[in-house]
Amino acid sequence: MAQVYLWLVAGVMLSSIPACSLGEDGRWTHKTDNWKILDLLRQLERIPPQLCLNDRIDFQCPWQRGNVTQMQKPQRTCVQHVVLQQIFSLFLSTDSHAVWNQTVLGQLLSSLASSLVRMQLAEEENLACPDWGNRVRKYFQGIHNYLKGKKYSSCAWEVVRVEIQVHLVLL
Ligand SMILES: *[C@@H]1O[C@H](CO)[C@@H](O)[C@H](O)[C@H]1NC(C)=O
Ligand SMILES: *[C@@H]1O[C@H](CO)[C@@H](O)[C@H](O)[C@H]1NC(C)=O
Asked: What is the C-alpha to C-alpha distance for residues 148 and 121, in angstroms, rounded to an integer?
């Protein structure tokens, strides 16, 4: 049920982006990329998340609704870039390969990689978000530590998958 609710929220949020903001500053591209990445994250699901409720923890995601979307473009792009990089290295890890469907995982990694390349080409000058960069890296370090503590169990990965899916919507 939580999953259904989150997807409804994601759908509403994506459809409520004002049309006039699309394409104006590259946001369209990022939103489209995020949507594709979100879809692949959803396809990765292997165990119903409700079977893993006992493994849930609060990862203390540093961004909430509005934190990043209201930033000026250079900073926003910078934060999005750091987040996608962190997701990429998380799912690139060996322990991730052991858990997920290889086909979908491969598509996810390639989608993340091409988003990162596109952002870098367009925003080379904008790697200036030291504070947020540190916050985001600390958050992902917490996720890595959690997975290690849980011995990279399928449920732990499922908790992480949902965590990322939910928070990527807010970028
Ligand atoms: C994110 O936004 C919330 C509410 O808008 C605010 O309370 C919080 O301080 C912001 N976080 C950062 C790190 O700016
Ligand atoms: C992996 O996912 C693909 C695409 O959804 C599917 O066709 C394939 O059967 C899956 N493989 C396994 C082992 O579940």
From this structure: 34
Q: Which residue's CA lies nearest to atom 12 of ligand 2?
A: 101
Measured CA to CA, the distance from residue 31 to residue 10 in angstroms comes to 12
The domain total for the chain is 1
What whole-number distance in Å separates Cα of residue 77 and Cα of residue 25?
A: 10
The CATH number assigned to the domain holding 42 equals 1.20.1250.10
**pTM score of the predicted model:** 0.81
Give the DSSP per-residue string, 51-66: GGGGG------S--TT
Separation of CA 47 and ligand 1 centre (Å): 33
Q: What is the pLDDT of residues 29-73, one digit of tens each?
A: 566 788 999 999 999 999 998 899 999 999 999 999 989 989 988
Report how far residue 26's alpha carbon sits from residue 43's, in angstroms, rounded to the nearest whole number: 26
- CA separation for the pair 132, 4 (Å, rounded): 30
Structural tokens at position 4: 């259904």
Q: Which of 97, 99, 101 to mutate to test the pocket of ligand 2 (most atoms within 8 A of CB)?
A: 101
Count the neighbouring beta carbons within 10 Å of the beta carbon of residue 62: 18
DSSP letter for 19, please.
G
Question: What domain range is 83 assigned to?
Answer: 2-168
Task: Provide the phi-psi class of 22: left if phi over 0, else alpha when psi is between -120 and 50, else beta.
Answer: beta
